[in-house]
Amino acid sequence: MLSAAAFVVSILAAIWLWRQGKRERAAMLSHRAHLLDETAKLFPSAQYSLEPDGFPVVVVPRPEGGELVLGLVADTLVTRRLPQLWLKLTLREGEGIRDFSLGALARPAGSEFYAITHDLPDWLPPPKGDVALLVRGKTISPGSEHIAELGSLFADTQLKEAVVTPGGVRIVRQACEGDRGTHLLLRQARFAIQAVPSETILQALRHAEQLSASMRSQAPTLAEAA
User: Fold this and answer.
1) How many C-beta atoms lie closer than 10 Å to residue 140's C-beta?
2) CB 3.0-4.6 Å disulfide test: which of 125, 134, 157, 165 passes with 101?
3) What are the DSSP E strand ranges found in the chain?
4) H-run or E-run covering 27
5) Both ends of the chain: CA-CA distance in Å?
6) Domain-by-domain residue ranges, the chain?
């Protein structure tokens, strides 16, 4: 049976642990909230909000119409790798830009919960290259030149996913890799950056705009190709 002193010590220890956990959570949420601060320099009209998990979402109206949406995904389900922080950039263009959907996912493991390539119905042959790609689409011919064009972007090893749909473009790109020591000892995902670098954001935007410009034309549908 615990003595009165031991009981008091255990209570004090529990209180300290609770307060420490609360401080660490507050620090984590504060850190997350500032991870897209560089967008303020790039896009003065950017509008900010926070997701329930504390990661920021940035919406940028585009003068030519549509909007740019930036968010972050912490992926702790990666196999044989450290946790990954992915930058998710979506260029919303409006319906009618193209009549097909096409997506490619690099180094697929099946656990990419954030990837919309998995949602496309048709399996397509991947282009030749050094990176393993999962390619899927909707109402696009397996022989379309757009598949090779999309695959060529993955010479950039930080690119994880690229998708075009009738109404927009999605790019998922590595922003940071998790701290090794924290992951191995505590199984936590901590990312040693104060903010996602401007160049990471701009490179994702360049890829999105490249795909938007080059994949606007009508592509042959499966019925037409038969």
Assistant:
1) 25
2) 165
3) 47-50, 56-61, 67-75, 84-92, 101-106, 122-124, 133-138, 159-165, 168-177
4) helix 4-33
5) 81
6) 1-33, 35-225
- DSSP 8-state class, residue 129: S
Question: For residue 177, what are its two tokens?
Answer: 């890799």
Q: Write out pLDDT tens, residues 195-225.
A: 999 999 999 999 999 999 999 755 444 434 3
Mean pLDDT on 24-47: 83
3-state SS class at 42: helix
Q: 115: closest CA among 84, 148, 141?
A: 84
Give whichever of 22-31, 86-95, 158-167, 173-182 has the largest mean pLDDT.
158-167
CB 61 within 8 A of CB 69: no
Q: Alpha helices of 45-98 — where are they, by DSSP H?
A: none
Q: How far is C-alpha 50 from the chain's CA centre?
A: 16
Asked if 119 and 198 touch (Cβ cutoff 8 Å), the reply is: no
In whole angstroms, give the CA distance from residue 29 to residue 53. 8
Query: How far apart (Å, rounded) are the C-alpha atoms in residues 15 and 93?
Result: 52
Mean pLDDT computed over 98-115: 94
CB atoms closer than 10 angstroms to residue 195: 17
Distance CA 53, CA 85 (A): 13
Name the average pLDDT for the chain. 84
Amino acid at 129: G
Residue 52 pLDDT more than 70?
yes
Distance CA 187, CA 83 (A): 9
